[in-house]
Design brief:
The chain is 46% helix and 15% strand. The chain contains 16 helices and eleven strands. The longest helix has 23 residues. The structure holds nicotinamide-adenine-dinucleotide (NAD) and magnesium ion.
């Protein structure tokens, strides 16, 4: 029996994971859940999955959450705040942690799970971009097994030989859907709205990652994520647009072989793989109908219309704290865009300005990274204010 702590249970990834878990009650037990502020949704999940503990991120909601548990007659222990997230990530009551919080807010609990030697199902890509070096070091030191959940990295993980035998790899190829604005000119993106940016052609996801997909920053973050997870330099990690999102990524070997992982675009496949690894279990995802699919198209990403991709490559090359600055500025800019206070095209401008202004330092210390994240956020907010003035 795997005992699972699910951080970010009310999100898109969290719900997909619970769907897979519910299909296999003989294999999986949910021992802890978390949500930031959706009290009613978290209560419903507690009623359904009966975890021993549940964390409401926003402590102001704790009294309502506790009252809700009592009125439903549930024994779940209620906790609140980010320290409690670290606590349930590290608690020996679970052997598996799903890191499905969005943004750098997930870094502390992700690291806590790594330090506790858990099986770490890693969806929270921002924590890898922010602190990849520290995370990989801590996971190795404490025997944590990282299973990538991001579909591209999960695909690559499936196409690679076991760790220690990873020779003969020429490059990794990450596929990108191209997002809702694929094929559009830079000029035509001036007035796009958050609603348009969030209506992704192939995947249903949270709003932050949906905007990242629209700017191609999502792919940029994934290049940095792949660098840390698989140990290849940015020059050997390529991006190709594949509008059908059926091939989830590829590994190109020196002998001319290319291995790909295919499937319908549904995160439950990656989650089922991570949950049951090295076994395979039913995920609820329909098998891919190759003849109905018929075509696999590929094209180069449009780097002029979507400059965020190259900003991410440049940050990876600069190294040190540059990816942390990129990530922080992106989070601030995307939040401002979603709030209607920043135009779509200015997202890249805010990131670029923040990156140019802040110096890059070595990135092997979490305290330095978090201070840098904080500083980059303040600077990005300052830029947004100036742009609006
Ligand atoms: P989402 O917005 O749907 O859900 C986010 C979850 O995190 C929610 O449960 C929310 O309560 C919690 N949360 C939000 N802010 C928090 C905070 N400050 N502290 C603690 N908890 C907080 O997001 P999502 O689409 O499920 O994405 C989750 C992560 O997985 C992201 O890092 C994303 O990039 C990654 N990811 C998502 C998908 C996808 O298909 N949705 C695919 C690949 C990777
Ligand atoms: Mg992805």
């Amino acid at each position: 029996m795997r005992r699972i702590a699910l951080l970010g249970a009310t999100g898109s990834i969290g719900r997909s994971a619970l769907d897979v878990i519910a299909r296999h009650p003989e294999r999986f037990e949910v021992v802890a859940l978390s949500a930031q502020n959706r009290v009613d949704d978290l209560l419903d999940l507690c009623e359904r999955f009966r975890p021993a503990q549940a964390v409401i991120g926003d402590a102001a909601n704790l009294p309502v959450f506790e009252a809700g548990l009592r009125s439903r007659g549930l024994q779940t222990e209620a906790l609140a705040g980010s320290v409690a997230l670290d606590q349930i990530a590290a608690d020996p009551g679970s052997d598996t942690v799903l890191a499905a919080i969005v943004g750098a807010a997930g870094v502390s609990s992700t690291l806590a799970a790594a330090r506790a030697g858990k099986r770490l199902l890693l969806a929270n890509k921002e924590s890898v971009v922010l602190a990849g070096q520290v995370l990989m070091r801590e996971a190795a030191a404490h025997g944590a097994k990282i299973l990538p959940i991001d579909s591209e990295h999960n695909a690559i993980f499936q196409c690679l030989p076991a760790e220690g035998q990873r020779r003969g790899i020429r490059r990794l190829i990450l596929t990108a859907s191209g997002g809702p604005f694929r094929g559009r000119s830079r000029e035509s993106l001036r007035e796009v709205t958050p609603e348009q940016a969030c209506s992704h052609p192939n995947w249903v996801m949270g709003r932050k990652i949906s905007v990242d997909s629209a700017t191609l920053m999502n792919k940029g973050l994934e290049v940095i994520e792949a660098h840390h997870l698989f140990g290849l330099p940015g020059e050997r990690i390529e991006v190709v647009v594949h509008p059908q999102s059926t091939i989830h990524s590829l590994v190109d070997y020196v002998d001319g072989s290319m291995l790909a992982q295919l499937g319908n675009p549904d995160m439950r496949t990656a989650l089922a793989y991570g949950l049951a690894w090295p076994e395979r279990i039913d995920s609820g995802v329909a098998p891919l109908d190759l003849c109905a699919q018929a075509r696999f198209d590929f094209e180069e990403p449009d780097r002029e219309a979507f400059p965020c991709l190259d900003l991410a490559y440049a940050a990876l090359k600069a190294g040190g704290t540059a990816p942390a600055i990129l990530n922080a500025a992106n989070e601030v800019a995307v939040a401002a865009f979603l709030a209607g206070s920043l135009p779509f095209l200015a997202i890249a401008d805010v990131i670029n300005a923040t990156l140019s202004e802040l110096p890059t330092e070595p990135a092997d210390d979490l305290a330095v990274l978090l201070a840098c994240d904080d500083q980059a956020r303040r600077m990005a907010r300052e830029w947004i204010k100036r742009m609006r003035a």
